[in-house]
Amino acid sequence: MLRLENISWSTPDGVGVLNNLDLTVPDGKLIVITGPNGGGKTTLAKIIAGIYRQDGGKIFLNDRDITEADITERAKMGISFAFQQPVRFKGITVRRLIELAAGEKLPLDKICNYMSRVGLCAEEYINREVNSTLSGGEIKRIEIATVLARHSVLTVFDEPEAGIDLWSFTNLIKTFEDIRKNLDGSIIIISHQERILRIADEIAIVADGSIKAQGKPDEMMKLLLENNSVTGKCFKQEEMF
Amino acid sequence: MNEITKDLLREISDWDGEFKGAYNIREDGQCAGRVSSKNIKIESKKDKPGLEIFIAPGTKGETVSIPACVTHGDVDDLVYNDFFVGENADVIIVAGCGIHTETGEPARHNGIHRFFLGKGSKVKYLEKHIGKGHGTGLRSIDPVTEAELEEDSQLEMDTAQIGGVDRTTRITRAQLGARAKLLIRERILTEKDQNAKTDFKVEMNGKDSGVDLISRSVARDDSHQEYHSVIVGNAPCTGHSECDAIISENGKVDAAPELHARDNDAALIHEAAIGKIAGEQILKLRTLGMTEEEAEATIIDGFLS
């Protein structure tokens, strides 16, 4: 279980982004964090992964205080982070990146397993470099494959739908539905997308730097649709596509 | 053949106690072993130090290895090697040079290689350079590569200088006939106060010829690299060059690519990028459990692989 207590964070020039935020993510659950742009969602995701250091508050993973642990230490404890804009590497192949994530050399069938879970054929991709020749949808799925290979206790996906085309988006939803069915540890997804919200065990609404509400998807969707004045226009409905 | 040569051969030419196919081992300016094959004849030059290597037309799947090793200081080795590749041959040539000095005295190898590719021939040329040993003696390797590609021939050059060479000036010149293709893949790592200059000139004279020149380099510590490439399109042709460099600490890189289109249907492209390792790359690898130092090493290893 992940527990955040009283988390605060300000930009280097002093603008408050997170204000005394509390969040609990139970074991084996998929939590989608949504809310208006600028509300602090990505900041929250980066604080959980250790990429940003909070100004105040405490973080516990399975009751262990990890507040002072850095990115590497948190990764070794089993926290994974899928970037909103996946990073490209000249010279590092898809296979190498997945093996780096797994922490060991992998036989082809295991790599195939991770790649097929994100809808890619391993043989077509494993020897390709993770460079700019990969499309936005391809690299997004490879990013997800790398975090699947880590068998994490907690995985954070930062806006997985950002920057991908409609066709890739439909496949991305299928990928998350599959991950949901075979849940391996807890998952946090930062998202605006209704279809991703609907596969959550719980939805947490972040606005103005704190959790405004957290609960079952039906209740939270109702709240989101009925009360934009509280949350702002915080998610894109399916009909938009 | 001394033990230092054996160690160098393992690193520069994957030597495991023997070579497959024809070979010539050069040790401190002398021949330490030579074998020709039915299709590949290796002969000494008569007018100057070096070899003439004749690859018979139609030779397929053979490898010829001509490594050169300098095993102590106070050696200035100059060698001229000419490769005559017969029509429609398809072979691998493994060159490479290792330099070892412990005495504080300089050691240098200057290999001048000329390639004459007959019509329809295909050559993969592998060249790895390293410097080893302790002491302040400068280790220098100054290769010159000249290639003439006849119609429909293809030369793929894969060159690497990964550490230990204090000074290097690498000169590559090529002339391409119709439909000839040249692929160059160069990787250079410099550290401490090392200096590397690399200079390419490729002239595409035949219709539908093409060159793809990819250079990746890492300049660390106080090292300095200079990259200069000239691609000339004298006919309808395609040329692409890509120069990527990572700098760290006080490393410096100068890149000066030139493209010269001399025909209306010459299509030439250059891409260049120089900079330190992107912070987000280190962050990504740290989220996979690496330390910052491990992440940097992994990024550089991959970049130069």
What's the rounded overall pLDDT mean of chain B?
Answer: 93
Q: Assign the structural class of chain B, choosing from mainly alpha, mainly beta, alpha/beta, alpha+beta, or little secondary structure.
A: mainly beta
Helix and strand string of chain A, N-terminal first?
Answer: EEEHEEHEHHHHEHEHEEHH
Described by the principal axes of the CA atoms, the overall outline of chain A is globular
In total, the number of strands of chain A is 10
Helical content class of chain A? 25-40%
Largest interface: A-B, 24 and 21 residues
Q: Helical element count of chain A? A: 10
Overall number of domains of chain B: 1
Strand adjacency order, main sheet of chain A: 6-7-8-3-9-10
Seen as an oligomer or otherwise, the chain set is: heterodimer
List SSEs of chain B in N-to-C order: HEEEEEEEEEEEEEEEEEEEEEEHH
Overall 3D geometry of chain B?
globular
Rounded radius of gyration of chain A (Å): 18 Å
Distance between the termini of chain A: 35 Å
- Return the average pLDDT of chain A rounded to an integer: 89
Helix content of chain B: 10-25%
Task: Provide structural commentary.
The complex is a heterodimer of chains A (about 240) and B (about 300). Chain A has about 240 residues and is an alpha/beta fold. In chain A, strands 6-7-8-3-9-10 form a 6-stranded mixed beta sheet, sandwiched between helices. In chain A, strands 2-1-4-5 form a 4-stranded antiparallel beta sheet, with helices on one face. Chain A is globular, with a radius of gyration of 18 Å. In chain A, helix 3 packs parallel to helix 6 (about 135-150). Chain A has helices at about 40-50, 70-75, 95-100, 110-115, 120-125, 135-150, 165-180, 195, 215-225, 230, and strands at about 1-10, 15-25, 30-35, 55-60, 65, 80, 155-160, 185-190, 200-205, 210-215. In chain B, strand 3 and strand 4 form a beta hairpin. Chain B is globular and about 55 Å long. Chain B is built from 3 helices and 22 strands. By secondary structure, chain B is mainly beta. Classes of the chains: A alpha/beta (about 240), B mainly beta (about 300).
